[in-house]
From TrEMBL, chain A:
Source organism per UniProt: Anaeroselena agilis
UniProt pathway annotation: Carbohydrate biosynthesis; gluconeogenesis
Family label: Belongs to the iron-sulfur dependent L-serine dehydratase family.
Catalytic activity: L-serine = pyruvate + NH4(+)
Name used for this protein in its record: L-serine dehydratase
Enzyme class: lyase
Name of the coding gene: sdaAA
TrEMBL record, chain B:
Organism of provenance: Anaeroselena agilis
CDD domains linked: ACT_LSD
Domain (ACT): residue spans on this chain: 147-224
PROSITE patterns reported for this sequence: ACT
Pfam families: ACT (PF01842), SDH_beta (PF03315)
Protein name: L-serine deaminase
InterPro entries for the chain: ACT-like_dom_sf, ACT_dom, ASB_dom_sf, Fe-S_L-Ser, Fe-S_L-Ser_bsu, Ser_deHydtase_bsu
Catalytic reactions of this protein: L-serine = pyruvate + NH4(+)
Annotated family: Belongs to the iron-sulfur dependent L-serine dehydratase family.
Presence of keyword Nucleus: no
GO molecular function: L-serine ammonia-lyase activity
């Protein structure tokens, strides 16, 4: 059987076989990598362990990154959640604190899973762990969720991009948020069609997102952007599970994402030549870090 | 088409898959190509590697790779301090190389036995790498396959001996490149294979009179 090229095809195959998107993509990966499905599930479970370890490490340390630009925000948000004051409530509040924790670990050269990239590594664990802990999903359901997310990322990567340098931050944080939305709908027992809707809804809200790292580092604005997109994943999942339909089909959204990426000026695609990187403060930070060297 | 774990992974030490994880793999690959523990390394950074080296820990990552650490080893963070314990002297400088990828490093290594090797490689995104030159020979080594590299005198029959030996071991050749500086002088061959190069295949290849160096490089993720 040929490789899956679109969400439409992926969803049709699952519906025809009466199975989940996770099962269809695992079968494809099994053929592609010449490895049994159990080994693929075991590798995904290992990813999940590393993600949870990164959440714990980030909440425990509060360490500043070598540049001094980020670090400690996960603890601030977690403390506010613990005190019962978080406006966003239990699940979104955890998603914020966890996404920041993993991104801060990344900035401090700790161990993370680049899912889909290192700069967007907080979104998947933030949103997935917050939903899983609060709702009590089994590890099997979580692995299904991660497999679904990886499949969604694969189709986005093949038809648009997951590289900030190619398509702006919609390709990193935007894709990460859409993938996390897919994971949550899968974990919550949503249908293949609802998973497609969640991806479409999340991606549509990230179109044209600029990638503008200050001083060339994935710290400002990237770390905090991870928290926003972890919550956006929950919003997209809730809408899709409620039965909200994207007016524009998901494959057309992905194609749009590619065209928007191409149309974005190079200065807004991870070159640090535009956006926040070229504000007076952004330039001052760049000079300060250069002088430090 | 990529696989699921190209999207869900790699497990790595942050902050950047291209500037950190890819740099670890470049260092590790250079160590394997040297074929022994490095005692000294002079590393020249080009382009984006040179500009954002410190912030992304590219220097720590390259040294961590040269020490044999994997991309998810948390010792990478303190690799510069650990180098002395591992008997590795190092120096960094910047360089402008013509027509290369923005994330390129030129690594000059001296092994514990005194042999030297010059490796040029790029981090091409998502932790993937491409070795573009070994001792001045242009090559394309991705580390996606099990790789056999030979440096030998440019004489008839050498290639036949090597490929026959691999066939006898049941190793299927996926890609193959041969290059040389001058006719009849030194040549370099890169063989990328579907199967790991078995240890017992190497002595008869090393025994070929025209052979100068034989390097078996495991695929990334399997020792690098």
């Amino acid at each position: 059987m040929s490789s899956i090229r679109s969400f439409g095809e992926w969803i049709r195959r699952a519906e025809t076989a009466g199975t989940t998107l996770a099962a269809v993509i695992t079968e494809q990966e099994s053929r592609h990598a010449q490895r049994p499905a159990a080994a693929i599930r075991a590798d995904m479970a290992r990813n999940w362990r590393v993600m949870r370890e990164a959440i714990a490490a980030g909440l425990a340390s509060g360490e500043k990154s070598p540049s001094g630009l980020v670090g400690g925000d996960a603890r601030l948000c977690h403390a506010r959640l613990e005190s019962g004051k978080a406006l966003t409530g239990e699940i979104a509040g955890r998603a914020i604190a966890y996404a920041l924790a993993v991104s801060e670990v990344n900035a401090c050269m700790g161990r993370i899973v680049a899912f889909p990239t290192a700069g967007s590594c907080g979104i998947m664990p933030g949103a997935v762990a917050a939903a899983a802990e609060t709702r009590g999903y089994s590890e099997d359901a979580i692995v299904d969720g991660l497999l679904t997310a990886a499949g969604a990322g694969l189709i986005i990567a093949e038809n648009a991009s997951i590289s900030g340098a190619e398509a702006g931050c919609q390709a990193e944080c935007g894709a990460g948020g859409a993938m996390a939305a897919a994971a949550i709908v899968q974990m919550d027992g949503g249908s293949p069609r609802q998973i497609g809707m969640a991806v479409a809804l999340a991606l549509k809200n990230a179109l044209g997102l600029v990638c503008d790292p200050v001083a060339g580092l994935v710290e400002v604005p990237c770390v905090r952007r991870n928290a926003f997109y972890a919550v956006q994943a929950l919003v997209a999942a809730d809408m899709a599970l409620a039965g909200v339909e994207s007016a524009i089909p998901v494959d057309e959204v992905v194609d749009t994402m590619r065209r928007v990426g191409v149309a974005m000026p190079v200065s807004l695609r991870e070159t640090s030549q535009g956006g926040l990187a070229r504000t007076p403060t952004g330039l001052a930070i760049e000079r300060r870090l250069h002088d430090k060297e | 088409m990529r696989g699921l774990f190209d999207i869900a992974g790699p497990i790595m030490v942050g902050p950047s898959s291209s500037h950190t994880a890819g740099a670890v793999r470049l260092g590790a690959m250079a160590r394997v190509i040297l074929g022994e523990r490095p005692a000294a390394a002079q590393i020249k950074l080009h382009g984006s590697f040179a500009q954002t080296c410190r912030g992304h820990g590219t220097d720590k990552a390259l040294i961590g790779g040269l020490l044999g650490f994997a991309p998810d080893d948390e010792r990478i963070k303190s690799a510069l301090g650990l180098a002395a314990d591992h008997g590795l002297k190092y120096g960094f400088s910047t360089v402008e190389l013509p027509d290369v990828h923005p994330n390129t490093a030129l690594i000059e290594l001296t092994g514990v036995s005194g042999q030297t090797r010059r490796v040029v490689g790029a981090s091409v995104g998502g932790g993937n790498i491409l070795i573009t030159s070994i001792d001045g020979y242009p090559v394309r080594v991705t580390g996606q396959y099990h790789t056999l590299i030979t440096i030998h005198e440019d004489k008839p029959g050498v290639i036949a001996v090597v490929t026959k030996r691999l066939a006898e071991e049941g190793v299927n050749i996926a890609f193959m490149q041969v290059s040389r500086q001058e006719r009849g002088e030194e040549a370099l061959m890169v063989i990328e294979a579907d199967e790991a190069i078995p240890h017992q295949a190497l002595p008869p290849i090393r025994a070929v009179a025209a052979m100068k160096a034989v390097l078996a490089v495991p695929a990334l993720g399997e020792g690098v």
